[in-house]
Amino acid sequence: MKDPTIADIDARRQAVGQMMAPTAAYADSDMFKLQCSRASNKPAARRWDNHLTAESLARAPGLLKVAARFLKRPGIISLAGGLPTPDYFSFRSISAKVPISSQSSLLEAESTITMGIHDIASENAAFDLSVALNYGQAAGSAQMIRWITEHVELVHNPPYADWDTCLTTGSTDGLYKALRMLCDKNRGDSWMTEEYSYTTALETAIPLGIRTVGINMDAEGLIPEAMDEILTNWDVAKRGARKPHVLYTVPTGQSPTGSTQSASRRRAIYGICQKHDVYIIEDDPYYFLQLRSRTSGGQPPPKLSVGEFLASMPTSFLSIDTDGRVLRLDSFSKILAPGTRMGWVTASEQMIERFIRHSETANQGPSGFSQAIVYKLVDEKWGHTGFLNWLQRLQAGYTDRRDVMMSAFDKFLPKLIVSWDVPSAGMFCWLKIKYNCHPNSNIYSPLDIEEEIFSACLKRGVLLAKGSWFRAEPDLLLQDVFFRLTFAAANAESIEVAVRAFGTALRTIFGLV
Amino acid sequence: MKDPTIADIDARRQAVGQMMAPTAAYADSDMFKLQCSRASNKPAARRWDNHLTAESLARAPGLLKVAARFLKRPGIISLAGGLPTPDYFSFRSISAKVPISSQSSLLEAESTITMGIHDIASENAAFDLSVALNYGQAAGSAQMIRWITEHVELVHNPPYADWDTCLTTGSTDGLYKALRMLCDKNRGDSWMTEEYSYTTALETAIPLGIRTVGINMDAEGLIPEAMDEILTNWDVAKRGARKPHVLYTVPTGQSPTGSTQSASRRRAIYGICQKHDVYIIEDDPYYFLQLRSRTSGGQPPPKLSVGEFLASMPTSFLSIDTDGRVLRLDSFSKILAPGTRMGWVTASEQMIERFIRHSETANQGPSGFSQAIVYKLVDEKWGHTGFLNWLQRLQAGYTDRRDVMMSAFDKFLPKLIVSWDVPSAGMFCWLKIKYNCHPNSNIYSPLDIEEEIFSACLKRGVLLAKGSWFRAEPDLLLQDVFFRLTFAAANAESIEVAVRAFGTALRTIFGLV
């Protein structure tokens, strides 16, 4: 089957007609795929029963959500579920001003989206506040599931048949539930991450009693051979933990290192995971923040067509996942706004079903306001084409910011003791400090020198993130001094001021003035 | 100190001046109380270290959230946190149409609330989208914490000094985290609930390996003497679980029974909990849905002033909690809309701190849209007075609906075999079926008869909730047949139609026609 296109998606919607999804309607991805699982000639996902925790296996469907299935009968009156009447909701309609972007501008124009309380009944709309603001399925509204399914098929086209999706309240929620699903301290479980990893991910595992094993990295991120060696030579007694059966990886614009795995790197990692029966959590919030290079003449890179743009995106683990061994986390936080507190997971049907069971008793899915407003924006206002246009313009914005920071590095940092790679995706730059050039490196530890630099910058009004904060195994001796700098938050002028202060602090501390 | 009033709250705000709470600003209740903990002459809460789980005790503050404290320094430039610039948020402003209610009408008029992206900078506003839609503290925005603190002080005025609050993504989230905080299967923990309880609560405990112990109820809900007896005679070996140290109770308009504990009942339950060192989770989503009686002439009850209204509210466990042994769950779901996916917990500082640590790695708090829109409504548009007016009108609406259902019961149900109490709060009515009047009660079990009635109603187009769905201990033999009916969802006409069908089904099954 050829790669799915936006035209295919549009044609499918035309053929199916208006969506009918009332309050708490059940939905899954198979209802919205171009080809449903059964019609697909792709292989089925493997089963992960041995990887699941006792807790996850013990989750039964919520009784009242099951009872909601009876609501499908036409004309049924329910006195069963305690769903408040929408007449008593304290919101009659919501609106938002949103940007219309084009290939040439992030804010081509401003437009308004609006959702009323009874738009389904009065305007034959697909979604309204009577549905969005009532109780719903923990998996998310049918309206959002449809859009996400189409998006996943368009961008990743997973190579197995029975993939599914559901919403999260952001990737923090997604990772937390994935960990509870896969790792159990009573089983002595451990998991693997990049040796420097996202602090919240590491902090999620600690109270759960899950040991973290850091895998060495290079400029392309996680090194598959290093992972293979650890797994091949795993000694349960020495490690005090079962051989890891889960890899957590941020393949694109990794936090904190800014590294992006190449396609061949990803295939190699996937192969090692197959070899050792390792399940992969692919956390990819920076996927769409590709930072392209300027032309040799210093001009911004040329605009891409939708097809070219899609072709320019990295090879996700999901897109090479023939086994269904990947649970992929996507998030609107970095591409619309963090406050949506909304994202989605994609994995095999088995895993998504377990995930939803957890959501039913943990939070019942994302805010109805978030679902309503994001749906109106990405589905009705933008559509898939408009969404991709927005992302391309966003990339240009972040690329400009990265270049501002790179210029400041070139101008203000002492290259004798600081080195860095130019990040090709994400929000972060990772600077390595040659701490052994410090005049007192014989008596100061790397940790001391890191703290000295951090404090000196603070005194000069600049807050940086210490590399040591991100260590997967903080008990190991710190071998290198790194700092993580973001170009996402401060404006261009402040970035310049801050990098200059950082450079001055380094020169002073290392006696270069 | 006299009871706090809305005038006191207004005066405090006047004295303090405009709130200054930028992106990810830290906030807790003590910043907004009429009297902060240290100035209070109330006792301090007890410590609950022995009740906390190993998991909860192992939670450390999130590193990046801690680093955010440095942001307080004036003029500091942060290159540390990966917070996207608000310039790239895809939402420039949001609006909602909301009802203005008065003491005499739920929808006196419609009004509009609006929040722009830079209102703080451009209009000296307290809150804007640049803050609400960026990453924030998991406890919730300072703006919402302030309103909730004032509300809790006004309505419950907890009798100990160091109480605190934080937001939840609804009470499902609140209960889930409270359970993880207090109950540990590795310790053999169990918890107590009403013998018929909220299914989601029961379903939350099962996969966590927490045993549920049901406490007998009467028309006033949980019977304290029954709880005392169970705790006094607890036999670890026989029960296969540690003596319960947690009580989960829904004191007002309990689901499924509709029962409401009297003030003296609550004091007695609190006393038994003190005697056995039991911690209380007070889940009170129906607190404000008091259903008052009509006058003897059949007229709606008279409107109350704000003071009278507050005085008419039940005695919450929080309001008699001298020990700080109550974690109270409040929710906007039943009083604004479920889709807000937002509520709050109130408990001692120690417990709220543990709760927030969990939120930091589980979901990072509620949606920014929810926080922005609800803040604009309950703080800026309504204020505390307007909020209480709304609640009083909401009570009148639900009271009318309850009365419609009660009339239908009187008209259509065979009293020979069905009995019920008129609920004084909440959304539910609990009907007891004299199953032993069934012509085949000698060969059919109560479970069979319940299923027969359920199916017969379904065939007649009516969905009811079976009493057996709500059993705290489903392994015990079902002794009684109950059905739960809600008057919150369907309209008056449908309620009549459904109750008539239910009555007909009962008459047919029990051979009363």
From TrEMBL, chains A, B:
Its EC number is 2.6.1.57. It catalyses: an aromatic L-alpha-amino acid + 2-oxoglutarate = an aromatic oxo-acid + L-glutamate. It holds the Pfam family Aminotran_1_2. Its cofactor is pyridoxal 5'-phosphate. One of its GO terms (biological process) is lysine biosynthetic process via aminoadipic acid. It is found in: Cytoplasm. One of its GO terms (molecular function) is pyridoxal phosphate binding. Its main location: cytoplasm. One of its GO terms (cellular component) is cytoplasm. Residues 131-502 form the Aminotransferase class I/classII large domain. Belongs to the class-I pyridoxal-phosphate-dependent aminotransferase family. This is aromatic-amino-acid transaminase. It comes from Trichoderma asperellum (strain ATCC 204424 / CBS 433.97 / NBRC 101777).
